[in-house]
Specification:
Length: 223
């Protein structure tokens, strides 16, 4: 069993006018050999955008791109004809397939969102989908190529037993967790990475909290 706590403060931050991005894994010119990927997850970013700021049209291929808006709103537009403004409580899923161009622009005075990239060998037609997520202790939001995303809304003092899987990634999107079976308190922006079925872990909220919980596919399902 292996459990690692990755503090939000340990991420490297990229800043531009109207945008701040915190990267969990190696990205662009910044290479961190200890943090290149976690199973099929090769990117786990948190973005903060000013109104009208974001990412102009750019291309992706061979990725599943999953976006969760923490606050504000984010407009996605792509070359496959999809256009949607994501708000809190929705998951956006871009299947880049053989290649697609898209843009992402904040549609609110301040927008905070989390985005994950998963490797994919599915080179079919690009597509984009939006999934509304109900509030609950552990709600399945999306399944893609053997990886599953759950979203957990916990009231202060509430607890949830996390899935027992070979590769687990838990991210505190907002709020904070108490010290318990996770071994250390976690704050917003922190993540827990666990491998080799660490047994039942329980998360207990110190304040109202939202967790993004990934059960990630085995390597042979994605590479």
């Amino acid at each position: 069993m292996s459990v690692e706590i990755r503090r939000g403060t340990a991420r490297f931050t990229e800043r531009e006018v109207g945008r701040a991005t915190r990267h969990a894994f190696s990205f662009g010119a910044v290479y961190d050999p200890a943090h290149v990927a976690f199973g099929p997850m090769i990117c786990h970013d948190e973005h903060l955008l000013g109104d009208g700021r974001g990412f102009d049209t750019h291309r992706h291929a061979g990725l599943e791109i999953v976006t969760w808006v923490v606050s504000g709103a984010l407009t996605h537009t792509d070359s496959a004809g999809a256009a949607h403004t994501l708000v809190a409580g929705e998951v956006g899923h871009l299947h880049a397939g053989s290649g697609v161009e898209h843009s992402e622009v904040a549609a609110a005075p301040q927008t905070r969102f989390v985005q994950v990239w998963l490797r994919s060998e599915d080179t079919g037609q690009p597509s984009y989908g939006v999934h509304a997520v109900s509030r609950g202790e552990l709600v399945e939001a999306l399944e893609v190529n053997g990886s599953t995303l759950w979203v957990s809304h916990l009231a202060a003092g509430g607890s949830v037993a996390l899935p027992v899987v070979d590769r687990l990634h838990v991210y505190v999107a907002s709020g904070a967790l108490l010290r318990n079976s996770l071994a250390e308190p976690l704050a917003a922006g922190d993540a827990l990475l666990a491998t080799e079925e660490p047994g039942p872990l329980v998360a207990t909220a110190a304040v109202d909290s939202v967790l993004l919980v990934w059960a990630l596919a085995a390597e042979d399902q994605t590479t």
